[in-house]
Amino acid sequence: MPDSRPVHGGLDVVELKALGLRPDEVVDFSASINPLGVSPRVADAIRRVDLSAYPDPECTALRNTLSAHLGVPPDRTLVGNGSTELIHLIASARLRRGGPAAVFAPTFGEYEAACRLHLVEPLPIRAAPGREFRWDIAEVTHLLAELQPKLVFICNPNNPTGTYLERNEVEACARAVGDSGLLVLDEAYASFVDERWDPAPLLEVGNVALVRSMTKQHGLPGLRLGYMVAPARMVREVRRFQYTWSVNAVAQAAGVAALDDPDHVEKGRLVVRAAREYLVREVRGLGLACTPPSANFLLVEVGNATALRLELLRRHRVCVRDCTSFGMPGHIRIGVRGMQDSRRLIDALTDVLGRSLTSVH
Q1: What's the pLDDT score for residue 99?
Q2: SS3 297
Q3: What average pLDDT does the segment 145-162 reach?
Q4: Where is pLDDT greater, at 3 or 280?
Q5: What DSSP assignment string belongs to 60-129?
Q6: End-to-end Cα distance, the chain
Q7: Are strands 151-155 and 123-126 parallel, antiparallel or unpaired?
Q8: What tens digit of pLDDT does each residue of 78-113 get?
């Protein structure tokens, strides 16, 4: 049986070996991570972890730190082994008795995968490319009110399109879902949005859960760490499906240290902002259509994404995200890195596009 798991960004070590490349010589634009990497405070905290002791199954220190930073009681937070675990836990809690589900698409593949594991085929609510991948919220709310789904997933800002919905749009969707459903707002990339709105008031609607990744803003993808903020009853409902010691001691310590170093995130945001402006300008200068970005990645129309990605990797040792798995074979996603790496990418794109490869255009 073929592997039907969702495709994600990040380097594929098997592919690199087949191409004769080492991971340390490839510049990875396929993942969207804080370009500054891990905070020195996090590195210090990791070194002090006692690996001979069991981790706290309740993640007490990290949840208390989250509580202080977010201004919510600890019982309204749940820490997970990456936001992906939380997505699957929520699906387990909400879809165990069946019922319809919906996904704002094109988007992160784990939402659909989580639903399908519970034998639920989610309804994709597709954005229109001609509207810069924005949804018609009036049409969407009408559809949600009719469907009354048990579960709705919205990635905001959306991966890979960068679409960022405003508070009134998300709130309208939540109210259309109704009391029997749950709207999950995945804010994995929200910390890189320049004009971000506060989603906390949405929790008072009663059927909204916020899911956040700590891997993106704090540069911790290797540790897998995320959290959910929701009404306490919802947290209890989802927590029932989480196995003991889901979050290891190193990840818990790293999370506490990362939250105590907000300057590291802010410095990363500034690097992203400058490099993002440069990349948008240069990519469009190459004659490529680039959807207006809101976070730390760009969606670029290139013609044949698979061919272009492979040429960039082979010839220049830079890796971008082929969006074919999103149902967008003509697009690539570029994770924003620092200026030096960004210049290397533009030089590589200029060279590959200049070769007028028939497989690319």
Answers
A1: 85
A2: strand
A3: 97
A4: 280
A5: HHHHHHHHHHHTS-GGGEEEESSHHHHHHHHHHHHSTT---EEEEES--HHHHHHHHTTT--PEEEEPBG
A6: 33
A7: unpaired
A8: 999 999 999 999 999 999 877 899 999 999 999 999
Rounded distance between C-alpha atoms, residue 62 and residue 60, angstroms:
6
Structure tokens at 260: 């105590």
Helix (H) or strand (E) holding 272: helix 262-285
Report the pLDDT averaged over residues 141-166. Answer: 97
Rounded average pLDDT over 252-261 = 98
CB 56 within 8 A of CB 245: no
Residue that is written with structure tokens 């699906």 in the block? 91
Alpha-carbon gap, residue 316 to 25, rounded angstroms: 10
Q: By 3-state DSSP, what share of the chain in percent is helix, strand and coil, each rounded to 5?
A: 45, 15, 40
State residue 120's pLDDT score.
Answer: 95
User: Nearest-CA neighbor of 149 among 176, 111, 168, 131?
Assistant: 176
At 360 the three-state DSSP class reads coil
Could you give all domains of the chain from N- to C-terminal order, each with its CATH number? 13-38+263-354 (3.90.1150.10), 40-260 (3.40.640.10)
Q: Give, to the nearest 10 degrees, the angle between helix 249-259 and helix 40-47.
A: 150
For 290, the 3-state DSSP assignment is strand
pLDDT of residue 356 exceeding 60, the answer is no
Give the whole-angstrom CA distance, residue 298 versus residue 75. Answer: 36
Share of the chain above pLDDT 70, in %: 97
Query: What residue type is assigned to position 318 of the chain?
Result: V
Contacts 24+ apart (CB under 8 A), 66-71: 66/227, 66/229, 66/259, 69/259, 70/200, 70/229, 71/200
What's the Cα-to-Cα distance from 187 to each of 114, 209, 215, 340, rounded to whole Å?
17, 10, 12, 28
pLDDT per residue as tens digits for the range 273-316: 999 999 999 999 999 999 999 999 999 999 999 999 999 999 99
